[in-house]
Amino acid sequence: MKNCAFLTLDERGDYVIDDEHAIAPLTELGWRVSTVSWRQSETPWSTFDAVIIRSAWDYWDDVPSFLEVLSQIDRETRLANPLEIVRWNLEKTYLADLERKGIGIVPTVWPDEVKPDSFQAFSRKLGCDQMVIKPVIGANGDKAFRVSRADPLQRREMISACFSNRKALVQKFMPMILIEGEFSLFFFNGAFSHAILKTPADKEFRCQEEHGGNIQPVAPEPLLLKRAQQALDALQEALLYARVDFIRNDENDFLVMELELIEPSMYLRTDPGAPMRFARAIDERFGSSDG
User: Fold this and answer.
1) In angstroms, what CA-CA distances link 1 with 27, 186, 240?
2) Sheet of strand 31-37: strand arrangement
3) Which among 29, 123, 209, 279 is most buried, taking Cβ atoms within 10 Å?
């Protein structure tokens, strides 16, 4: 029997984690699955035939240690997704790389710093009043703020203080997030698996379940699927897993909000066939000794 490790965080907290849906299908395919913290040091990583980064949703608090652990794993066994891709995808500056390759992204500016008097300049550059400020390294909507150039000084000071020691990006606020929601498309070994629509709770703009968002499975329309495939084709590498998040714009097209290649929640529970598709992707990639 082959051994596989799913990397997770030490304490689940309020996170909604559904990686366990893939364990039974992997067992059917001859895998023994262990869910282990990325911080563990008791079991040598060489014990595992493959290590899959999953719900390691505290790495952004200690990125150097996380990368050090992944480097060790990469030396001792096979890692997914690859370390090179992880390093690239850690910082949301990857969006600028995608834009240079012709992929449509939500309009974004990359300030050197966020000051209370910066909001007017952000608004002028993006050509809008409503914006979203969030960390360059981060996830789950943590420290993401919907802002306006007309926000009171006290709020602007509070937000700027949150980014006093961390880089931020500022994006145009997309109204369709409130009207329709955000689409997420999932791919395993480069093949489309399933899709969901995430809609925020009342008086919220963040779609994550931890912030009250509603999740429902959807069949992506052809243009949405095409845009997702174009984004993945820009990487020129078929990865074990990928999640592409989109928002519809005023022209009825779709713009990339995020391209999640490190530890995305994959909502396996929303599609009956998704757990086995994910398990088969792991088996196809890592099932042989030279995988």
Assistant:
1) 9, 28, 21
2) 31-37, 2-8, 50-53, 79-80
3) 279
